[in-house]
Structure prediction request, 289 residues.
Amino acid sequence: MDIAGTTAFITGGASGIGFGIAQQLLANGARLVLADIRQDHLDEAKAFFEERQQGRNVHTIRLDVSDRDQMREAAKECEAVMGGPDILVNNAGIDPSGPFDQATYADWDYGIGVNLMGPINGIMEFAPGMRRRGRGGHIVNTASLAGLTPMPSFMAIYAVAKAGVITLSESIRDSMAEDNIGVTVLMPGPIKSRIHESGQNRPERFRGNSGFAETEQQLAKRVVSDTWMEPTEVGDMIVDAIRNNTLYVSTHGNWKETVEERFKALIASMPEAKPFDFGATLAVPQEES
Ligand code: NAI
Ligand code: GGE
Prediction:
Protein backbone atom coordinates (compact mmCIF):
# COMPACT_ATOMS: atom_id res chain seq x y z
CA MET A 1 0.00 0.00 0.00
CA ASP A 2 0.90 3.68 -0.33
CA ILE A 3 1.82 5.39 2.98
CA ALA A 4 1.49 9.01 1.80
CA GLY A 5 -1.77 10.61 2.97
CA THR A 6 -2.63 7.88 5.49
CA THR A 7 -3.20 8.12 9.24
CA ALA A 8 -1.20 5.80 11.52
CA PHE A 9 -2.25 4.98 15.10
CA ILE A 10 0.80 3.78 17.07
CA THR A 11 0.63 2.41 20.61
CA GLY A 12 3.80 2.99 22.61
CA GLY A 13 4.45 5.51 19.84
CA ALA A 14 6.15 8.06 22.07
CA SER A 15 9.36 6.11 22.78
CA GLY A 16 11.81 3.56 21.43
CA ILE A 17 10.68 1.31 18.56
CA GLY A 18 7.21 2.90 18.30
CA PHE A 19 8.73 6.39 18.07
CA GLY A 20 11.20 5.15 15.42
CA ILE A 21 8.29 3.74 13.38
CA ALA A 22 6.41 7.04 13.91
CA GLN A 23 9.31 9.14 12.56
CA GLN A 24 9.72 7.03 9.41
CA LEU A 25 5.97 6.86 8.70
CA LEU A 26 5.72 10.66 9.06
CA ALA A 27 8.77 11.10 6.78
CA ASN A 28 6.85 9.07 4.19
CA GLY A 29 3.76 11.28 4.37
CA ALA A 30 1.60 9.72 7.09
CA ARG A 31 -0.17 11.67 9.84
CA LEU A 32 0.32 10.26 13.33
CA VAL A 33 -1.75 9.47 16.37
CA LEU A 34 0.66 8.52 19.14
CA ALA A 35 -0.93 6.62 22.05
CA ASP A 36 1.06 6.00 25.21
CA ILE A 37 0.58 5.39 28.92
CA ARG A 38 3.34 7.91 29.74
CA GLN A 39 2.34 11.60 29.49
CA ASP A 40 6.03 12.66 29.75
CA HIS A 41 6.89 10.47 26.74
CA LEU A 42 3.94 11.93 24.80
CA ASP A 43 4.93 15.54 25.63
CA GLU A 44 8.54 14.86 24.57
CA ALA A 45 7.46 13.22 21.29
CA LYS A 46 5.02 16.05 20.50
CA ALA A 47 7.78 18.66 21.18
CA PHE A 48 10.16 16.72 18.90
CA PHE A 49 7.73 16.98 15.97
CA GLU A 50 6.78 20.61 16.77
CA GLU A 51 10.47 21.60 16.59
CA ARG A 52 10.48 20.13 13.08
CA GLN A 53 7.32 22.08 12.05
CA GLN A 54 5.32 18.81 12.02
CA GLY A 55 3.15 19.40 15.10
CA ARG A 56 -0.06 19.71 13.08
CA ASN A 57 0.48 16.18 11.71
CA VAL A 58 0.81 14.61 15.16
CA HIS A 59 -1.93 14.01 17.74
CA THR A 60 -1.25 12.38 21.11
CA ILE A 61 -3.57 10.28 23.29
CA ARG A 62 -2.91 9.00 26.82
CA LEU A 63 -3.88 5.32 26.81
CA ASP A 64 -3.26 2.03 28.60
CA VAL A 65 -3.52 -0.70 25.93
CA SER A 66 -4.62 -3.27 28.51
CA ASP A 67 -7.80 -1.20 29.15
CA ARG A 68 -10.50 -2.00 26.57
CA ASP A 69 -12.64 1.06 27.33
CA GLN A 70 -9.65 3.35 26.81
CA MET A 71 -8.83 1.57 23.52
CA ARG A 72 -12.44 2.07 22.32
CA GLU A 73 -12.35 5.79 23.22
CA ALA A 74 -8.97 6.16 21.48
CA ALA A 75 -10.39 4.68 18.27
CA LYS A 76 -13.20 7.28 18.34
CA GLU A 77 -10.76 10.13 19.06
CA CYS A 78 -8.39 9.03 16.28
CA GLU A 79 -11.20 8.94 13.70
CA ALA A 80 -12.58 12.32 14.84
CA VAL A 81 -9.25 14.17 14.94
CA MET A 82 -7.07 12.64 12.20
CA GLY A 83 -9.41 10.26 10.35
CA GLY A 84 -8.75 6.57 10.02
CA PRO A 85 -6.49 5.02 10.99
CA ASP A 86 -5.32 3.29 7.84
CA ILE A 87 -2.30 1.88 9.66
CA LEU A 88 -2.59 0.36 13.16
CA VAL A 89 0.69 -0.33 15.01
CA ASN A 90 0.19 -2.45 18.15
CA ASN A 91 3.63 -1.82 19.62
CA ALA A 92 3.26 -0.83 23.29
CA GLY A 93 4.93 -3.36 25.56
CA ILE A 94 6.91 -3.89 28.71
CA ASP A 95 9.51 -6.28 30.11
CA PRO A 96 7.72 -8.37 32.79
CA SER A 97 10.64 -10.69 33.54
CA GLY A 98 11.70 -12.07 36.91
CA PRO A 99 12.47 -15.30 38.80
CA PHE A 100 9.75 -17.71 37.69
CA ASP A 101 9.18 -19.18 41.16
CA GLN A 102 8.41 -15.65 42.43
CA ALA A 103 5.80 -14.85 39.74
CA THR A 104 2.35 -13.89 41.07
CA TYR A 105 -0.96 -13.59 39.22
CA ALA A 106 -0.40 -9.80 39.22
CA ASP A 107 2.79 -10.40 37.21
CA TRP A 108 1.02 -12.75 34.76
CA ASP A 109 -1.97 -10.42 34.38
CA TYR A 110 0.39 -7.48 33.77
CA GLY A 111 2.65 -9.26 31.26
CA ILE A 112 -0.17 -10.90 29.31
CA GLY A 113 -2.54 -7.93 29.76
CA VAL A 114 -0.16 -5.41 28.19
CA ASN A 115 1.97 -7.48 25.78
CA LEU A 116 -0.69 -9.88 24.41
CA MET A 117 -4.14 -8.47 25.27
CA GLY A 118 -2.88 -5.01 24.22
CA PRO A 119 -2.57 -6.03 20.54
CA ILE A 120 -5.79 -8.09 20.81
CA ASN A 121 -7.66 -5.07 22.22
CA GLY A 122 -6.21 -2.90 19.44
CA ILE A 123 -7.46 -5.26 16.76
CA MET A 124 -10.88 -5.72 18.40
CA GLU A 125 -11.47 -1.95 18.69
CA PHE A 126 -9.83 -0.72 15.46
CA ALA A 127 -10.31 -3.46 12.84
CA PRO A 128 -14.10 -2.99 12.45
CA GLY A 129 -13.63 0.71 11.60
CA MET A 130 -10.75 -0.03 9.24
CA ARG A 131 -12.95 -2.58 7.43
CA ARG A 132 -16.01 -0.27 7.41
CA ARG A 133 -14.12 2.64 5.84
CA GLY A 134 -13.25 0.31 2.95
CA ARG A 135 -9.87 1.89 2.18
CA GLY A 136 -7.78 -1.19 3.02
CA GLY A 137 -4.80 -0.61 5.28
CA HIS A 138 -2.22 -2.39 7.39
CA ILE A 139 -1.77 -3.78 10.91
CA VAL A 140 1.71 -4.06 12.46
CA ASN A 141 2.13 -6.03 15.70
CA THR A 142 5.39 -5.80 17.66
CA ALA A 143 6.35 -9.24 19.02
CA SER A 144 9.99 -10.23 19.67
CA LEU A 145 12.54 -12.85 18.65
CA ALA A 146 11.92 -13.97 22.24
CA GLY A 147 8.56 -15.28 20.97
CA LEU A 148 10.30 -17.65 18.53
CA THR A 149 13.52 -18.88 20.11
CA PRO A 150 13.52 -20.97 23.31
CA MET A 151 13.76 -18.65 26.32
CA PRO A 152 14.79 -19.14 29.97
CA SER A 153 12.12 -19.29 32.70
CA PHE A 154 13.15 -15.79 33.82
CA MET A 155 11.42 -14.51 30.66
CA ALA A 156 8.53 -17.01 30.53
CA ILE A 157 5.72 -14.45 30.81
CA TYR A 158 7.29 -12.25 28.13
CA ALA A 159 7.92 -15.21 25.81
CA VAL A 160 4.34 -16.53 26.19
CA ALA A 161 2.90 -13.12 25.32
CA LYS A 162 5.22 -12.58 22.33
CA ALA A 163 4.61 -16.10 20.93
CA GLY A 164 0.91 -15.22 21.13
CA VAL A 165 1.47 -12.00 19.18
CA ILE A 166 3.22 -13.95 16.41
CA THR A 167 0.37 -16.51 16.18
CA LEU A 168 -2.25 -13.76 16.37
CA SER A 169 -0.64 -11.98 13.42
CA GLU A 170 -0.38 -15.15 11.32
CA SER A 171 -3.92 -16.31 12.02
CA ILE A 172 -5.80 -13.07 11.26
CA ARG A 173 -4.11 -12.57 7.90
CA ASP A 174 -6.71 -14.28 5.68
CA SER A 175 -9.61 -12.44 7.34
CA MET A 176 -7.91 -9.03 7.07
CA ALA A 177 -6.99 -9.71 3.43
CA GLU A 178 -10.73 -9.89 2.61
CA ASP A 179 -10.81 -6.14 3.31
CA ASN A 180 -7.41 -5.43 1.73
CA ILE A 181 -5.75 -4.98 5.13
CA GLY A 182 -2.21 -6.36 5.34
CA VAL A 183 -0.52 -7.75 8.46
CA THR A 184 3.09 -7.59 9.63
CA VAL A 185 4.59 -9.07 12.78
CA LEU A 186 7.80 -7.38 13.91
CA MET A 187 10.30 -9.58 15.75
CA PRO A 188 13.13 -7.36 16.97
CA GLY A 189 16.39 -8.27 18.64
CA PRO A 190 17.99 -5.67 20.94
CA ILE A 191 16.93 -2.10 20.03
CA LYS A 192 17.86 1.16 21.82
CA SER A 193 14.83 2.11 23.92
CA ARG A 194 13.53 2.84 27.42
CA ILE A 195 12.12 -0.66 28.01
CA HIS A 196 14.29 -0.76 31.16
CA GLU A 197 11.80 1.76 32.64
CA SER A 198 9.04 -0.88 32.48
CA GLY A 199 8.52 -0.75 36.27
CA GLN A 200 7.28 2.84 35.89
CA ASN A 201 4.80 1.75 33.19
CA ARG A 202 3.05 -0.99 35.19
CA PRO A 203 -0.64 0.02 35.30
CA GLU A 204 -2.01 0.62 38.81
CA ARG A 205 -4.28 -2.44 38.88
CA PHE A 206 -1.31 -4.79 38.30
CA ARG A 207 0.75 -3.28 41.14
CA GLY A 208 0.87 -4.65 44.67
CA ASN A 209 1.58 -8.32 45.25
CA SER A 210 4.22 -8.49 42.48
CA GLY A 211 7.04 -10.99 42.90
CA PHE A 212 9.24 -9.01 40.50
CA ALA A 213 9.75 -5.71 42.38
CA GLU A 214 13.46 -6.36 42.90
CA THR A 215 13.99 -7.39 39.24
CA GLU A 216 12.20 -4.22 38.07
CA GLN A 217 14.55 -2.09 40.21
CA GLN A 218 17.59 -3.90 38.77
CA LEU A 219 16.26 -3.49 35.24
CA ALA A 220 15.81 0.26 35.80
CA LYS A 221 19.60 0.56 36.29
CA ARG A 222 20.48 -1.22 33.03
CA VAL A 223 22.19 1.01 30.47
CA VAL A 224 21.36 1.03 26.76
CA SER A 225 24.22 -0.51 24.75
CA ASP A 226 25.79 1.22 21.73
CA THR A 227 25.63 -2.16 19.96
CA TRP A 228 21.80 -2.18 19.95
CA MET A 229 19.96 -1.05 16.81
CA GLU A 230 18.54 2.45 16.29
CA PRO A 231 14.70 2.58 16.39
CA THR A 232 14.63 4.62 13.15
CA GLU A 233 16.34 1.69 11.38
CA VAL A 234 13.46 -0.51 12.58
CA GLY A 235 11.10 2.21 11.31
CA ASP A 236 12.63 1.92 7.81
CA MET A 237 12.09 -1.86 7.86
CA ILE A 238 8.43 -1.33 8.80
CA VAL A 239 7.90 1.23 6.02
CA ASP A 240 9.10 -1.41 3.51
CA ALA A 241 6.97 -4.14 5.13
CA ILE A 242 3.80 -2.00 4.92
CA ARG A 243 4.49 -1.15 1.26
CA ASN A 244 5.02 -4.84 0.35
CA ASN A 245 2.66 -6.48 2.88
CA THR A 246 5.53 -8.53 4.34
CA LEU A 247 4.35 -10.88 7.12
CA TYR A 248 7.60 -11.38 9.05
CA VAL A 249 10.14 -8.70 9.92
CA SER A 250 13.16 -9.79 11.99
CA THR A 251 15.75 -7.16 12.81
CA HIS A 252 18.61 -9.51 13.79
CA GLY A 253 20.03 -12.83 12.54
CA ASN A 254 21.56 -13.78 15.89
CA TRP A 255 19.00 -16.42 16.85
CA LYS A 256 18.88 -18.37 13.57
CA GLU A 257 20.60 -21.45 15.01
CA THR A 258 18.39 -21.70 18.11
CA VAL A 259 15.21 -21.18 16.07
CA GLU A 260 16.36 -23.80 13.54
CA GLU A 261 17.19 -26.25 16.34
CA ARG A 262 13.72 -25.74 17.84
CA PHE A 263 11.90 -26.35 14.57
CA LYS A 264 14.09 -29.35 13.70
CA ALA A 265 13.25 -30.91 17.09
CA LEU A 266 9.54 -30.22 16.52
CA ILE A 267 9.56 -31.84 13.07
CA ALA A 268 11.55 -34.78 14.48
CA SER A 269 8.83 -35.32 17.11
CA MET A 270 6.18 -35.89 14.41
CA PRO A 271 5.44 -39.49 13.30
CA GLU A 272 4.68 -40.51 9.69
CA ALA A 273 1.42 -38.93 8.51
CA LYS A 274 -1.55 -41.33 8.17
CA PRO A 275 -4.79 -40.44 6.39
CA PHE A 276 -7.79 -39.46 8.55
CA ASP A 277 -11.19 -37.87 8.12
CA PHE A 278 -10.85 -34.29 9.37
CA GLY A 279 -14.63 -33.63 9.35
CA ALA A 280 -15.61 -36.71 11.32
CA THR A 281 -13.13 -36.05 14.12
CA LEU A 282 -13.01 -32.27 14.51
CA ALA A 283 -16.01 -30.58 12.87
CA VAL A 284 -18.74 -29.00 14.98
CA PRO A 285 -22.04 -30.96 14.59
CA GLN A 286 -24.38 -29.08 12.23
CA GLU A 287 -27.83 -27.95 13.42
CA GLU A 288 -30.78 -29.49 11.56
CA SER A 289 -32.25 -26.82 9.25
P1 NAI B 1 10.01 1.76 25.26
O1 NAI B 1 9.71 1.66 26.71
O2 NAI B 1 11.10 2.70 24.84
O3 NAI B 1 8.69 2.14 24.46
C1 NAI B 1 7.46 1.58 24.76
C2 NAI B 1 6.41 2.67 24.96
O4 NAI B 1 5.20 2.02 25.30
C3 NAI B 1 6.77 3.62 26.11
O5 NAI B 1 6.60 4.98 25.73
C4 NAI B 1 5.75 3.23 27.19
O6 NAI B 1 5.36 4.33 27.99
C5 NAI B 1 4.61 2.68 26.38
N1 NAI B 1 3.76 1.75 27.14
C6 NAI B 1 4.14 0.82 28.05
N2 NAI B 1 3.07 0.20 28.56
C7 NAI B 1 1.98 0.74 27.95
C8 NAI B 1 0.59 0.53 28.06
N3 NAI B 1 0.07 -0.35 28.94
N4 NAI B 1 -0.25 1.24 27.27
C9 NAI B 1 0.26 2.16 26.42
N5 NAI B 1 1.56 2.44 26.30
C10 NAI B 1 2.42 1.73 27.05
O7 NAI B 1 10.32 0.27 24.80
P2 NAI B 1 10.55 -0.45 23.37
O8 NAI B 1 11.71 -1.31 23.57
O9 NAI B 1 10.55 0.51 22.27
O10 NAI B 1 9.26 -1.37 23.31
C11 NAI B 1 8.33 -1.38 22.25
C12 NAI B 1 7.93 -2.80 21.92
O11 NAI B 1 9.04 -3.47 21.37
C13 NAI B 1 7.49 -3.65 23.11
O12 NAI B 1 6.37 -4.41 22.72
C14 NAI B 1 8.68 -4.54 23.36
O13 NAI B 1 8.32 -5.75 23.98
C15 NAI B 1 9.18 -4.75 21.96
N6 NAI B 1 10.55 -5.20 21.81
C16 NAI B 1 11.59 -4.41 22.23
C17 NAI B 1 12.90 -4.82 22.01
C18 NAI B 1 14.07 -3.98 22.44
O14 NAI B 1 15.20 -4.47 22.35
N7 NAI B 1 13.91 -2.74 22.83
C19 NAI B 1 13.21 -6.06 21.33
C20 NAI B 1 12.04 -6.85 20.98
C21 NAI B 1 10.77 -6.40 21.19
C1 GGE C 1 16.46 -4.44 25.27
O1 GGE C 1 15.68 -4.91 26.33
C2 GGE C 1 14.89 -6.01 26.15
C3 GGE C 1 14.24 -6.50 27.27
O2 GGE C 1 14.44 -5.87 28.46
C4 GGE C 1 13.37 -7.58 27.16
C5 GGE C 1 13.21 -8.18 25.93
C6 GGE C 1 13.89 -7.73 24.82
C7 GGE C 1 14.73 -6.62 24.93
C8 GGE C 1 13.71 -8.35 23.46
O3 GGE C 1 12.36 -8.66 23.22
C9 GGE C 1 14.60 -9.54 23.14
C10 GGE C 1 16.00 -9.09 22.90
O4 GGE C 1 16.15 -9.09 21.54
O5 GGE C 1 14.45 -10.55 24.09
C11 GGE C 1 15.49 -11.39 24.44
C12 GGE C 1 16.08 -11.28 25.67
C13 GGE C 1 17.09 -12.15 26.04
C14 GGE C 1 17.52 -13.14 25.19
C15 GGE C 1 16.95 -13.28 23.96
C16 GGE C 1 15.93 -12.40 23.57
O6 GGE C 1 15.33 -12.49 22.38
C17 GGE C 1 15.74 -13.45 21.46
